[in-house]
Amino acid sequence: MLESVFQSVPAGIMIVDKNRNITEINKVVENMTMKSKEQIIGKKGGDGLGCYNSLTLLECGTGHICESCILKNSVEYVLNTGKPLFNVEANPELLINDEIKKPWLRLNILRTIINEEKHAVLIIEDISNEKINSNLNNKIKAKEEEISKLKECDQLKNELLANVSHEFKTPLNTILATIQLLEIKGLQSINTNDEDSGQKYIRIIKQNCYRLIKLIDNLIDIGKIGTGFFEMNFKNENIVTLIEEITLAAVEFAKEKGLKLIFDTEIEEKLIACDAEKIERVILNLLSNAIKYTEEKGTIKVNIYEKDQKILISIKDKGEGIPTDMSEDIFQIFRRVDSSFTRKNEGSGIGLYIAKSIVELHQGNILVKSKVGKGSEFIIELPIRLIDEVSNEAAAAYETNVERIQIEFSDIYK
Ligand code: ADP
Question: Which residue owns the Cα nearest ligand 1 atom 20?
Fold first, then answer.
């Protein structure tokens, strides 16, 4: 009965003595190795199974490589300790029918006593197909994740197209309508001084051209941020003067809406490594938002101070505020508190996404504290660190540029 069980179980059974010499095998082992019982019995484990490494050795277990052989070590462990081992997985290189194969084997190894001698019983399963399936499953999972990421990208691109088309159309329609008005009034009206003069129309056209430039600049930057090619030009700058200059350049734009823009600082001077032009974009974006989302008359405060080895720049308004559940969302691309086409203010929901990316490229952080109806405070945290200036001598010095500011503020006034 035992012989029948021994031969009929669907796993290979191999018995080795205390020297790892094979003393018994069943039919499955013969089939696995494509060798007859006579060719296997009496041989060391690896030699019997056809271990490819054993071929160049005097005997299985004598080579340097054999020290890390999982089969040999497991059998020796069981023989020495008497403790069984279950589910040992091995991937030996075997010469089967003159062909090198690398089957995946799973073994259960137990110690038994035969004729008063310690023997190890090895139950061997060929799990190559299982392994192939699990590898395939892993590959399928990875592909599925890739597809879902691509779908997300595709959705984002569709959103981008829908948003961008609308954003392009609004200023273009305004430009076209203004040109038509100019045509009706005649070009000579440009030189008159009345309130409805051609000068006003030229201003509107210019304003909307700036909006288009801003949109295109933002789109180019989104692409660069997404592909990791957003180039930074770090220099050690006095961050206090930098923020003060940017704020001063924006005072006139705030005034046009009857708003006061006040700069205050707790520190006189602080050199930190930053890209001045990129920081300018962040500050201008925050200032233009503060102006845009504040009703006429009011004060916007820019403050700069030092805390925990960081420079903190705060831009505080008393405007419409942001609902708490949106305070993280607004930094994501295209997220706006009011995204309806009938919204009060123009904007694409790209500015804060770029601002956050720039601040993070400075190893900094940006956050907002806000209450609906009370106002918002945006805080930028920049680490205090310096760079080796010699390595970046080519970096151009920062200069404020009126046109850059006009572009950034282009969607405040229609
Ligand atoms: P947008 O071009 O739409 O202003 P942003 O990315 O700069 O794009 O801002 C995203 C959204 O965050 C805005 O649409 C607005 O809803 C909200 N937001 C930003 N700044 C303020 C602010 N100072 N006060 C109120 N809401 C703001």
Answer: 289
CB atoms within 10 A of CB 68: 8
**Ligand 1 centroid distance, CA of 383 (Å):** 25
Closest approach atom of ligand 1 to CA 285: 7
0.85 cut: is pTM over it?
A: no
How far, CA to CA in Å, does 317 sit from each of 243, 289, 323, 348, 371? 17, 9, 15, 20, 11
Spatial separation of the C-alpha atoms in residues 52 and 101, rounded to whole Å = 9
End-to-end CA distance of the chain: 96
Q: How far is CA 278 from CA 59, 92, 226, 234, in A?
A: 70, 58, 17, 10
CA 206-209-214 angle, to 5 degrees, is 125
pLDDT grade, residue 81 (50/70/90)? very high
For residue 273, what are the contacts with CB-CB under 8 A and spacing of at least 6? Answer: 234, 235, 236, 237, 362, 385, 386, 387
Residue pointed to by tokens 């405007």: 319
Ligand 1 center to 140 CA (angstroms): 41
Q: Residue 155 Cα, ligand 1 centroid: separation in angstroms?
A: 22
Q: Whose CA is nearest to atom 19 of ligand 1?
A: 289
Which two tokens mark 59?
Answer: 């005997």
Pocket of ligand 1 (CB under 6 A): 285, 289-290, 293, 317, 319-322, 330, 336-338, 347-353, 376
Over residues 300-356, the pLDDT tens digits come to 999 999 999 999 999 999 999 999 999 999 999 878 787 655 556 666 788 999 999
pLDDT in tens, 136-172: 999 999 999 999 999 988 887 887 788 788 888 888 9
Nearest CA to ligand 1 atom 13: 336
